[in-house]
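User: Just a sanity check before I run the rest of the batch. Below are the structure tokens for the first item. I only need the designed sequence back.
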């Protein structure tokens, strides 16, 4: 039973990271198309997106372990 709860918690964490990353990617894409985002803000969002991707890659072995 505890393994099922752990697996559900992992899936929620995975979905959370993926959803945040997708939202950031959407904002970056929209802002680039409209030229509405200052370069420093765009760079910050891009770095946040890359950081989330790295977090996802690092979490993957733990998420798929159980």
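Assistant: Here's the designed sequence for the first item:
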């Amino acid at each position: 039973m505890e393994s099922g709860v752990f697996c559900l918690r992992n899936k929620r964490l995975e979905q959370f990271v993926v959803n945040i990353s997708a939202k950031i990617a959407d904002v970056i894409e929209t802002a680039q198309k409209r030229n509405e985002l200052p370069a420093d803000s765009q760079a910050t969002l891009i770095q946040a997106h890359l950081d989330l991707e790295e977090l996802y890659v690092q979490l993957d072995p733990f998420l798929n372990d159980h």
